[in-house]
């Protein structure tokens, strides 16, 4: 992409071209910010900026793509009322600051809270609060490495197979809890627990 393409699209208010540019996760973060700052009241742009930040962020390599500009954008999008979907992307991003996750943990949309519950950087005290939330929110707790052990001990007996599956796969869960799932009623959960414990040896 040439800088002229971006400048021309901004000056012409060409939303279609800007949305296409934002689909590219290699677009420089400075240009992402420029587009956002210029069109932060446009729902489509805000949503696509949030998606761009998600695309460039790896859950497995958390430090990759980290930058102060990304954090600034995540904070701004979290407080931008124009697009609820954009808040979902912020809630699950591992670079989202803890204070923003705390703020989103009170969001009126259960999916936003569920993604905060699953975010590996959400602090334990916020995760504890989710234990009495709706099922979709609680489900994020079992796979989160920060979930307190006392909650995992309860989740090991959860009726939902997927909750037990995520717990069986949780590398941060204590061995004694994962070991209980070796005798689970579901073969997939048993298999996941075996794999988890086998990789720790």
User: What sort of overall outline do the alpha carbons produce when their principal axes are compared?
Assistant: elongated
Q: Write down the overall mean pLDDT.
A: 89
Q: Tally the beta strands.
A: 0
**What level of helicity do the residues show?**
55-70%
**Class per helix and strand makeup:** mainly alpha
Radius of gyration: 20 Å
Cα(first) to Cα(last) distance is: 48 Å
DSSP strand content = under 5%
Number of helix segments? 14
Regarding quaternary structure, how should these chains be classified?
A: single chain
Provide the low-confidence segments as ranges. none
Biggest sheet statistics: none
Order of helices and strands: HHHHHHHHHHHHHH
Note down, in words, how this protein is organized.
- The protein is built from 14 helices and no strands.
- With 201 residues, the protein is mostly helical.
- The mean pLDDT is 89.
- Helix 12 runs parallel beside helix 14.
Keywords:
single chain; 201 residues; mainly alpha; 61% helix
Write a compact overview of the structure shown:
The protein contains 14 helices and no strands. It is mainly α.
Q: How does the SSE layout of this entry go?
A:
Elements: H1 3-11, H2 15-22, H3 29-38, H4 43-55, H5 68-78, H6 84-92, H7 98-104, H8 110-118, H9 124-130, H10 135-138, H11 149-155, H12 161-169, H13 175-180, H14 187-200
């Amino acid at each position: 992409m040439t800088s002229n393409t971006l400048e021309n699209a901004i000056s012409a208010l060409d939303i279609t071209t800007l949305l296409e540019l934002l689909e590219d996760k290699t677009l420089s973060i400075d240009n992402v910010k420029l587009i956002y700052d210029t069109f932060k009241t446009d729902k489509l742009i805000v949503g696509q900026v949030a998606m761009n930040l998600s695309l460039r962020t790896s859950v497995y390599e958390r430090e990759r793509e980290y930058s102060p500009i990304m954090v600034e954008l995540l904070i701004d999008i979290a407080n931008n009322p124009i697009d609820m979907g954009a808040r979902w992307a912020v809630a699950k991003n591992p670079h989202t600051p803890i204070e923003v996750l705390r703020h989103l943990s009170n969001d009126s949309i259960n999916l936003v809270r569920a993604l905060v519950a699953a975010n590996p950087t959400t602090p334990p005290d916020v995760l504890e609060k989710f234990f009495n939330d709706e099922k979709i929110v609680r489900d994020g707790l079992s796979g989160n490495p920060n979930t307190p052990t006392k909650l995992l001990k309860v989740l090991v007996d959860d009726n939902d197979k997927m909750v037990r599956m995520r717990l069986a796969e949780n590398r941060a869960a204590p061995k004694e809890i994962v070991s209980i799932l070796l005798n689970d009623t579901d073969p997939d959960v048993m298999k996941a627990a075996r794999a988890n414990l086998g990789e720790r040896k």
